[in-house]
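Hello Y.,

Per our agreement to keep a running log of every chain we model this quarter, I'm adding this entry. I've kept the format consistent with earlier entries: sequence first, then predicted structure.
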Amino acid sequence: MIREKLTQFSSGILMMFALPLLVILMGAGTIWCMNNGMIVLGVLSTVVGVIGLVMLGGFFVVDPNVGAVVTLFGNYVGTERRPGLWWANPFTAKRKVSLRIRNFESGKLKVNDHDGNPIEIGAVVVWRVVDTAEACFQVDNYDNFLHVQSEAALRNLATTHAYDAHVEDAMSLRGNTAVVAEQLKVEIQARLEKAGIEVIESRISHLAYAPEIASAMLRRQQASAVIAARSKIVEGAVSMVQMALDELSKRDVVHLDEERKAAMVSNLLVVLCSDHETQPIVNAGTLYQ
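Predicted structure for the entry above:
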């Protein structure tokens, strides 16, 4: 495995003055030697001047938050991360790799959740390159590799969790967004480790049932909400009835036998649990026939 090797190349500012001066001097030396019959020295001056011209091709510029990966005849030489003008062997190849933080937003993927329901899910991944050598040499195209692996991780996450929890304290995509986002980040990071990429953040950006079952699932959610609300209402109503009976007994307001208590409980529950306002009915008779 090839890991990043930081290498400090020669200053381009210094070489920018040294190389043109060398070429000019060698050109002048060649002319002087030829005029004075010094053929050998003239040829040597010409060769050195040509070498100086070739060396002018070794300049390269590194922008802030960019790494220049330098290779020589297929061999990795090193990476220059310092911004500025630098000079390296003119026969080396330089590949610029951005070290800036970037976003990737997946499309709306259609998958089946843990319960087998078709859902649409999308995610946003915040990432950056931390190892330029791995990004260049371990994968063919690290940008495309990130896209494919992120979507694969998102699909896998969706299949291992239900869209909505139907059991209390159960994990779900909709009910545990923070936990799910952290799990997604860990899985994507594990897939991208070999490409020299760091995942800074990941989160679910889109989550919905597929259109073909959306209306049915909406009715199911509404029914679940109604049941939960009714359970809360009944729980509160029973507590209020119990409190009313205890207060009547404690204050010795009226003595009720079991049948009258049952009738009172029935009336109070109807009043407290009804969807509509109840209408009082005055009973002028008696409960007993």
